[in-house]
Write a structure and sequence with these properties.
Elements lengths: L1 H16 L10 H23 L6 E5 L6 H17 L3 E5 L6 H8 L7 E6 H4 L18 E16 L8 H10 L5 E4 L5 H13 L4 E4 L3 H10 L4 E5 H9 L4 E6 L13 H4 L7 E9 L4 H15 L2 H7 L6 E2 L4 H22 L5
Parallel strand pairs: 1-2, 1-3, 5-6, 5-7
Antiparallel strand pairs: 3-9, 4-7, 4-8, 4-9, 4-10
Helix pairs in contact: 1-2, 2-11, 3-11, 7-13
Length: 351
């Protein structure tokens, strides 16, 4: 069909040469040829999606292994790979607040064979407010596929800290300016932004210590290397129940089922303390929409399986949040506005 269409267009070209610059009505073979070629072009993405995937997929996690994000990414990759009969291989590329791994994805071929599972903040949201230049465009280099899970952050302290609620923590920090440390998993991470906003709102001084991921941050807080941090329920609930940490505040709209006695920020009188970890799946920007839909369809089906959700999300303290690419894009836009306001209020300047 494509050969016939091209021949018809060439015939039109020869006919047009004799028309010069005079206006004329295009012959029917011209129109037929154009429609034939146009139909061929439109069918290419659909054909690509039908044959996708035909080889292994690389799933880049721009954070260290071992954290809930990594566990979820690996479980999802295993299940999708099993369904497709093609392996989805997780590759941890940690460093620079996820920038190193994100750059790998941004520069990959836009064919759907390179994925990225990461918190939307800081990877595609917070880093834009922290770095003057990035090796990619956070709005164009990545295409949203689906949200996967979310969890509100909890403000926790080491048991040695003599504070049993958030008000007592603030009083302690004021009494010892600059003496206490808070840990985060990098510049632009939610703990970093939230505690910097707290410092400005409450006019106090607490020192920031950044780690290369959630896992090393949690090791530091349980060892007393830092006294304060914030993390999702999946990372801290067991530690709180065992007495290795104390939870003072839920930085989200609802109390955490596993820790029902911990008040929310609004209940405690500090509604500005808001941070939820939202994990999402991205592909390289420019990937054909048909392929994005193909991936989204399979991922949403996996997330909708009760066994998968209970074992790999609920058990880690996360809620399932399967979404359309459009819904995920809307969440990212809202998060950019929120984090932008937080960064300005906290006086964070890009470096």
């Amino acid at each position: 069909a494509s050969r016939i269409g091209i021949l018809k267009i060439l015939q039109c070209k020869r006919s047009m040469m004799f028309k010069g610059l005079q206006l004329f009505k295009p012959p029917m073979q011209c129109i037929a040829g154009l429609f034939t070629v146009a139909g061929m072009v439109v069918s290419v993405p659909a054909a690509m999606a039908q044959g996708f995937p035909s080889r292994p997929i690389r799933n880049v996690v721009p954070w260290p292994p071992g954290a809930p994000l990594d566990v979820i990414a690996r479980a999802l990759s295993t299940e999708v790979g099993r369904r497709w009969g093609q392996p989805v291989v997780v590759e941890n590329r940690a460093g620079a607040a996820s920038i190193i791994g994100a750059e790998v994805v941004a520069k990959a071929a836009p064919d759907g064979y390179t994925w990225m599972v990461t918190p939307i903040n800081p990877s595609v949201v917070g880093n834009r407010f922290l770095y003057k230049s990035l090796p990619f465009d956070p709005d164009k280099s990545f295409a949203p596929v689906s949200l996967l899970a979310q969890s509100s952050q909890l403000v926790v302290v080491h048991p040695s800290v003599p504070a049993n609620n958030y008000q007592e923590l603030l009083a302690l920090i004021r009494q010892q300016p600059g003496k206490l440390n808070y840990g985060s998993f990098g510049l632009g991470s939610q703990p970093n932004m939230m505690f910097e906003l707290m410092k400005k709102r409450e006019s106090m001084d607490i020192t920031h210590v950044a780690y290369k991921g959630i896992a090393p941050m949690m090791t530091a807080i349980t060892a007393g290397e830092v006294q304060v941090t914030a993390a999702g329920a999946g990372s801290v609930a067991a530690l709180v129940k065992s007495g290795k940490l104390k939870a003072l505040l839920v930085a989200g709209p609802d109390r955490v089922p596993d820790l029902p006695n911990v008040p929310t920020a609004s209940e405690a009188g500090y509604p500005y303390m808001q941070a939820s970890a939202r994990f999402g799946l991205f592909v390289t920007g420019g990937t054909p929409d048909a392929i994005i839909r193909r991936i989204n369809q399979e991922v949403v089906q996996v997330l909708g399986t009760a066994e998968f959700t209970e074992k790999h999300l609920t058990a880690l303290g996360y809620q399932r949040v399967a979404s359309t690419p459009e819904a995920m894009a809307a969440v990212i836009r809202d998060e950019v506005v929120l984090v932008g306001e937080m960064a300005r209020a906290a006086g964070v300047k890009p470096e």
